[in-house]
């Protein structure tokens, strides 16, 4: 299969830039569906035996949330109420202002918890609270700091590893170009996968941004770099084999490398997607948002390794002269002069 990836690189770059811009814009325009472990919030789950009017329940609870004030300041800044798909369960997630001391905020949370249950029972006497989770500031600080540190360390080690792995490719090829492109494609994959997930969460609120989602992003980094390095490794091999032959230029070498690894990349990704989809459909719902983020990351990562990483490598090195890479050899007859 001849893709002519380098020839059509402007199309692929335009597609990626479009999605990346949309991804960046959504962070400023959409109200993100954070889980409580990211917002100091609370989550209460209720079960019932006969049907409940969800819009009416939402209206009554939202009205009550506006009455929760401290020093004339509204404490609840957002509330999300939704029915769990295919189950007679209702979830109420509440986000609170974070400029309130922990003890006072806990009292407010407990008060609103009781008020919410009273409102729901007036509408449907069969309703019962089945679970309640309250996240405090210290836990959120721990999650935030750990996530940031983990991402930074992952990126640093990935950069070091790629720079070392491709330190001897061919004369005229920039070693750092492999590292830089790897980081750019990782950023591309995480940003677009996050955008796809956020779009999904706007229509299906059970898909939340939480610690599972952060874990999924880190996993996406690992899968994405693996797929990219498979292609880069083939390019390295072909550079060592053909770079010295003047009738093989960089574009031809990269195109050949993509064609040689295309089937493997697609089959591997399809296998991963098949397994993830099976888990998503038949495993417990508690890990569904983690699996969905992984599916998005796998699709985007496969696309970027073929249509973004390789053309970027060409752009970084197209003006450079290629020559055969020669490994240093030790000559025992060489004498050391002291």
Describe the structure.
By secondary structure, the protein is of the alpha+beta class. Helices cover about 60% and strands about 10% of the residues. The protein has helices spanning about 10-30, 55-65, 100-125, 135-165, 175-205, 210-240, 250-280, 290-305, 310-315, and strands at about 40-45, 70, 75, 75-85, 90-95, 130-135. Helix 5 (about 175-205) packs antiparallel against helix 9 and helix 6 (about 210-240) runs parallel beside helix 8. The longest helix is centred in the last third of the chain and has 33 residues, at about 250-280. The radius of gyration is 26 Å and the shape is elongated.
Structure summary:
With 338 residues, the protein is α+β, with helices and mostly antiparallel strands.
| Total discrete domains | 2
Kindly state the number of beta strands: 6
Count of DSSP-assigned helices? 9
Q: What is the string of SSEs from the N terminus onward?
A: HEHEEEEHEHHHHHH
Write the layout of secondary structure elements.
Blueprint: H1 9-29, E1 42-47, H2 54-65, E2 69-70, E3 73-74, E4 76-83, E5 89-96, H3 102-123, E6 128-134, H4 137-165, H5 175-203, H6 211-242, H7 250-282, H8 288-307, H9 309-317
Antiparallel strand pairs: 1-5, 1-6, 2-3, 4-5
Helix pairs in contact: 1-5, 2-3, 4-5, 4-6, 5-6, 5-8, 5-9, 6-7, 6-8, 7-8, 7-9
